[in-house]
Every structure is written in structure tokens, then in C-alpha cells.
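Note to self: keep these together.
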Amino acid sequence: MTEISRAVAAETPQAPQPTLGHILYKTGIPLFIFSTVFSSVLGVSRLTVLPMLTAVEVGGETRDAAALEAEATALRSSLQDLEQERDADILPLGGTKYRTLADAKITAAAPIDIMHAIGDIASSVVPENPKAVILSRFVYAPGDHTITLSGDVRGVGPSSMTVLAQFTETLRTDPRISSVIAPSFTRLQDPKTGPHSPFILSLTLR
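Structure:
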């Protein structure tokens, strides 16, 4: 029985063993089809589905990622130009508009300082009577860079106009004052204060 089985098995043809080339041939076609379909789906998704998912509304317009990136690049370029212009006008102070304004602010005296200086001048015109020149009004006009002074000279008897003239000339010598429009020199008589000279002076600052 055993010998018959061996004889039959020896006469039965053996199935050939699959080779590597045969395996690759069998699996290559399905892989190729899958790769082609998968690539096509990705391409269609990138062109149609992805823009719809990534699109946003900016300024009332719907824009995709590519448009947003292009606009961001343009904005960065514009911002860089504006920063360079700002740096040229502000940061380097030499020879710029900002430097001119800064110098003007530094050299220009504050109105409050001018007012104190004029008060000191008024007090020093008549050393023995510091209240001879009375300043009653001080008006500063920034646009014209002018100061209007109103006041009165009293307590010096008939010399009130002389004291007023001396006060006017002293103001003209002040380096912070460019010009002085002299007042009308008049002497009035008051029963209480005696002779006095009211005045209105217009000063132009440097």
C-alpha cells in the first residue's frame, strides 16, 4: 500500500513555486490602479475642496490661501517701506523735519518763562518802587508767536511816561523778544493814584 502511494505521488506533477517576478506582476497592477486613483482624488481635492475649506472672508471678499499669502506679502512690503520712511524722518535726528521741530522746541522759551521774565523787568525799572509798573493782562498768541501786555505805570508822579518808555526799551533788549510795538504814551490824572500812564504793548517772540 505504501509502495503504491509512493508511486502515485512520484507520477503526480508538482505545482511550480511562485517567483519574485510573478508576485510583483500579480500585485503591481492593483497598486498602480490604486496609486493613480489616489493621486487623482488628491489633485481634485486640492483644486476644488481644499480652497473651499481654507477660504476666508477679508474686507467683504472671500479669498483662498494663495490670495491671502500674496496679500500678506504685499502688506509686509508696504509696511517695510513705511518703516523706512518713518526711520528716515524720525529716528536719525540730523537734518530731518523732526530735528527742526525738536530744535525749535528747545530754543523757544515757554510763555510762562517769558511772563516771569517780563515781571522781573517791570519790577526792576524803578528799583526804589518795584510796583511802579503794574502788569494787569498777559495774552499769548501761539499762532503769531506774540504777547500782548496791558498794564499801568503809577506811583512815580509826573515821570510815568518816562518810566513807561524805559520799560519799553528794556523789553527791546531782551534776547527772547524779536520786536516791540510801543504803546501810546499818555499821562492821565486820577484823584486816588495821581498821575499814571496806562499802556498796551505788543511783543513778538523769537
